[in-house]
Amino acid sequence: MLKKVTKGLVIAAIAATSMVAAEKINGAGATFPAPCYYDWAYNYQKATKTRVNYQSIGSGGGIKQITERVVQFGATDAPLTPKELAASKLWQFPAVFGSLVVAHNIPGVKDEALKLKNSVVAEIFAGTITMWNDPKIVADNPGLNLPAQKIVVAHRSDGSGTTHVFTDYLSNVSPMWKSKFGTGKAIGWAVGVGGKGNEGVTNIIKQTPYSIGYIETSYKEKNNLPAATLQTASGKWVTARRANFQNAINNASWTKKDHFYGSLVAGKGDSTYPIVAATYILMPRETPEVNAEVIKFFDYSFRNGDKAAEKLGYIPLSVEATNLVRQYWAENVK
Fold it and tell me: Which CATH class is domain 2-96+254-262+277-332?
């Protein structure tokens, strides 16, 4: 055990020395916030000459690389529990909010025109609803030309925080899904085609007529993909709009003590969009000097990156939330 810990500390020390010499911070993980982090990194380098190199490899990869101390920070959409953080000797804080949409490629069906009940979404991804003209879909879409075509399900093939968020949503709205599949970064899909990262799933949907998949909202916006209108937890129809995302965020109940662990999916309210999540940053506990450099990047981005995040479809942390994060840094990164 001592040998393993020593190895980890050596790797961290090498990483710290390399970062200072090269004026570079290395991070890796979630594809969900990648467009935002790329923009923040570009602007931070312009302002400070320090390069932030972020690899969009999925939350599973990000957790693995920070646990093995390969990078200076990891990124995950699936927050680690306080117990998991303690075991891996990691700190955790939220960086930005985002949302998922159920995007599709049905020729002739425009954005927000298709209505899908939460239970129907679960049945589609479970493989029990297989045709676009299934009576359960048709019933909620009178007048919409739904074809007699087989549904092609697109999902993630890699360990994914986006999958964790999506399956957490399905587990909250569908007892069937919860009992058969549950929540996880990787699950045993009953049907579908796998793509790596939000990029991979987006490309499958774009290139495959009659497909459906879950992707982060910014990928939907950048690629001009139509998405379904879903339901709130109370059963009201709700679209993927900023005001509806904000309702979910306003109900966040997290604390510094729990390292901001929690879930925002299927929140209360008649206009609360059901698939909203925070995305998180992970840092080692034993490298405070390196962590201070990582914090400088995120602190700068919190102060200067809100407009860029909003333009890309994300929701920045509130002033109250960023102040809470700064208190967390001050109390822990020493």
Answer: alpha beta
